[in-house]
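Risk register update: the risk of archive-format incompatibility is retired. Evidence:
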Amino acid sequence: MTNLKSREIRLKNRPVGMPQPQDFELAETGVAAPKAGEVLVRNIWMSVDPYMRGRMMDRESYIPPFQIGQPLQGGAIGQVVETGPDSHFKVGDYLQHMLGWREYAVVGPMALPQKVDPSLAPVQSFLGALGMPGLTAYAGLFRIAAFKPEDSVFVSGAAGAVGSVVCQLAKARGAYVVGSAGSDAKCDWLLKTAKIDKAINYKTAGDLNAAVGSAFPKGIGVYFENVGGAHLEAAINHMRIHGRLAICGMIEQYNNTAPAPGPWNIIMTIPKSLRIEGFVVSNHFDLLGAFHKEMGELVAAGKMHWQETVHHGIENAPSAFLGLFKGENSGKMLVKIGPDKAV
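Archived output:
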């Protein structure tokens, strides 16, 4: 394996505002042999996620920033093609790890490798509904928002990788669920496949606040936030007393170059006794067992569905990432970077 070459995507510039194709570069590099405790993985699938935009800024956060001239990182699934001494894995194993954005990766413990069983589900689903996005939905709905079946649930970005799982988890437990999305096709999927009660196309709804109010005549018990801006304002307007807001993301604001104005109606959190809590999924890995159990039961019962939007080739990873901010994905945005079987 010593003569292997691997293509990878590196951060060329720190983006200002919306990232541009020229902020990334495709490079080719040699592949090192795995050392003790490491394995060489040929990546098959990689994930692009909105949180990666924050890592492109040189600032302190819950996760270190990407470095100029270095390959980006993120969730990936591949197959072991070579092992170093004392490895816990063997050639042929499918591994999920955090060294995406490259064709080959030397994976050690710091990349958080986890074995994936391809007999349980298509391996790429462990980057989506059965992986980090799904766990994010589970933790946000049940732990952060303290969901109860009598809650009416509003989900922004409802056709995305996280939002679609939130919708179906809440429906499976008997809630009234409304989601917003940015196209009629996405709304149709939410109604016909995810089987939520109502879907709002926020691009054609006109007055979003009025549309949300009409969908929730008895108010919102739980709001799962993925978008921010006008969605957050509308949700606050129509929350019930003691409503809870789980703040997962605000993709509408990720590329802002100036501070966005806060919700004008934030004062309503006082008389309504609202609880607003932001969260990151890495603080909730203790829920993995319960998450996998519930998702397995829902999948087996035909009550959990997901969509994937796939770009092909490592060279197209930047365009897949940029597509997240243009609403080009239905469900999980993925990049297929290698054949299904590496060995």
